[in-house]
Amino acid sequence: MLGTFSKGLGGIGGFAAGPADLIDTLKHQARGFVFSAALPPSTCAGLIAAMDVIENEPFWLTRLHENANLMRKGLQQLDYNTGPSVSAVIPVIVGDDLTAYQFARAMHAQGIYVSPVAYPAVKRGLARLRVSVMATHTHDDVLQALRAFEKARAMVPGLRAPAELEPAA
Known about the structure:
By secondary structure, the protein is α+β, with helices and mostly antiparallel strands. It has 2 domains: 2-56, no CATH class; 59-164, Aspartate Aminotransferase, domain 1 (Alpha-Beta Complex), CATH 3.90.1150.10. 47% of the residues lie in helices and 13% in strands. It contains 6 helices and 5 strands. The strands form 2 sheets. A 3-stranded antiparallel sheet has the order 3-5-4, with helices on one face. A two-stranded antiparallel sheet has the order 1-2. The longest helix has 19 residues, at 59-77. The chain starts with a strand and ends in a 14-residue tail after the last helix.
């Protein structure tokens, strides 16, 4: 089993768990692990605290799903292509790379941070914005972001209708 600490828990690094011979092979032969180092103690403490919150405060996970669903449905109602996303990281597929960068700038100008994702991270013609929703966002925060998406459409001349884009895989 492999897992990451970077996205869901807000840390760095990750883990590999499995039979001793597999772990030994990873540590001594897998390129990505050969020169890796142990996580800093402060990161480990933060990750343990994050796991405690997940275990002892389940309402945060519920709120995260509510916020992500509100954002995804709002984007879809605005006719944005969110692909098959079901997580709190929602793609907004816009087409070409330049459009993704212009769109991100239009959102930033309105105080909303989104990351453009372009080739080679995604196929050519499927550039997107990465929208990350958090449990700490309020309902009003999500609605403010949706209003910014609505305004940004008029600010970015290269935006194409979702029907013109191949669905995300």
